[in-house]
Amino acid sequence: MTTARLYEQAGVSLSAAGVFEDLVKARIEKAWPGGGDEIGGFAGGGLIPRSARRRVARLAASTDGAGTKPDIAAVLGRGYYKGVGSDAGAMALVDLYCAGHQPAFALDYLAVAKLVPEDHIEVIDGVIAACKAAGCRLIGGETAEHPGMFRRANGFDIAAFGIGFSAGTITGAVKAGQCVYGWPSKGPGANGYSLLRRVFGLNAGPRTVLRRLAKYWSDLDDTLADALMVPTQMYIDACEAERKLGTVFAAHAHITGGGLVENIPRILPSTLKVVLNRDAWDRPPILRMAQFVGQIDPDEMDHVFNQGIQMVSVVENGELRCSPRLRPVGESAIQIGQVVNRRGDEPQVEFRGTFAGELHTTR
Questions:
Q1: 251 has which bridge partners?
Q2: Whole-angstrom Cα distance, residue 101 to residue 113?
Q3: Among 62, 253, 233, 301, which residue's Cα sits nearest to residue 160?
Q4: Which of 101, 123, 130 is nearest to 31 (CA)?
Q5: Vertex 81, ends 150 and 143: CA angle to 5°?
């Protein structure tokens, strides 16, 4: 009996790995002609962008994943894998952009209970889609079969890594009086899914979970599956369109784990805070329902979920001016607050009002 056959019996398919590598290589070659040659070696690479070479380029890197959202995707199967791959890419690449760097390259790490090339290539399709939206290129990654490591027979996990260079995406400084804009989310993004799975009873066996996910909710005007699996919105292109029209950004914050209350202070001096008007935006119905069904404390909602805002931008020079025609419907930024002086040790994020369309305040 050969080693390869013993390895197969242990749960790792070398033949599937080869098929999957060929699928990945073909997709990268299609997305970035010539890029397929980078796949299959010990590392991938590329040239430093011209924009970064014009100045002393500062390199930055980031990494993130899709949390426990892949557990739901594993139950739902093909058709939902791409969105989770896109989530992982968005989490890492938008973080990089918010730190003032233009993403240039990305890598991924995909771990699966059992590799099924025709299914799991959808995850890579999602990572590629996120890279295209961020203006960067996927240059490699790792795919590993880990039998016995996942609680579901077809479980998987995905992480993405971004590399970028300073590119003048943020040229202002945060000061009192500046406007705060929010870029809307259509769902939880890739955060809070351990709580969502508990609230909606999605930790059960696959048949029970599928039945619950397939249920149509009138309050959502959708099935629970489709409401939960909306991919993370990315607004790098929209922000760059604004910059080309002369907008000066003082800061961006990616609203991921920790919500608005923990991510906005990461871009503020200790002497400043933001006042946010909740009535300026609508929360996605899935977040309203999760709070009601799970009887989640409002403060916990604020610390776990994005509450309907995927990204925050502080603008130095007045209002955003980008024509809605330059970006898809529903992707326009909303003025949600202002930067003000902070007194003593008061919170750096203050909420006022009630979410648009909701009867009761959540604070």
A1: 314
A2: 35
A3: 62
A4: 130
A5: 55
pLDDT band (50, 70, 90) for residue 363: very low
Per-residue pLDDT at 326: 46
User: Using an 8 Å Cβ cutoff, are 139 and 35 in contact?
Assistant: yes
Helix (H), strand (E) at residue 120: helix 117-134
Give CA–CA dist 320/324, Å, rounded. Answer: 11
Query: SS3 helix, strand, coil % of the chain, rounded to 5?
Result: 40, 20, 40
Check: CB of residue 274 under 8 Å from CB of residue 216: no
CB 73 within 8 A of CB 14: no
Token pair for 68: 């426990």
- Report the interhelical angle of 69-76 vs 206-214 (nearest 10°): 90
Q: What are 317's two structure tokens?
A: 């020079």
Burial 209-236 (b: 16+ CB within 10 A, else e): bbebbeeeeeebeeebbbbbbbbbbbbb
Residue 138 near residue 106 (C-beta atoms within 8 A): yes
How many Cα atoms sit within 13 Å of 307 on the Cβ side?
30
Q: Over the stretch 142-162, which tens digit does the pLDDT of each residue have?
A: 999 999 999 999 999 999 999
Backbone angles phi, psi at 335, to 5 degrees: -75, 115
Residues near 107 by Cβ (< 8 Å), separated by ≥ 6? Answer: 44, 138, 139, 140, 141, 142, 160, 161
Assign 170 a pLDDT band (cuts: 50, 70, 90).
confident
Q: What's CA 274's distance to the chain center, in Å? A: 23
Number of H helices, E strands in the chain: 13, 12
User: Minimal CA–CA distance to 255: which of 318, 322, 349, 171?
Assistant: 349
Q: For residue 329, is pLDDT > 60?
A: no
Alpha-carbon span 161 to 62, nearest angstrom: 6
DSSP E strand boundaries for 113-155: 137-145
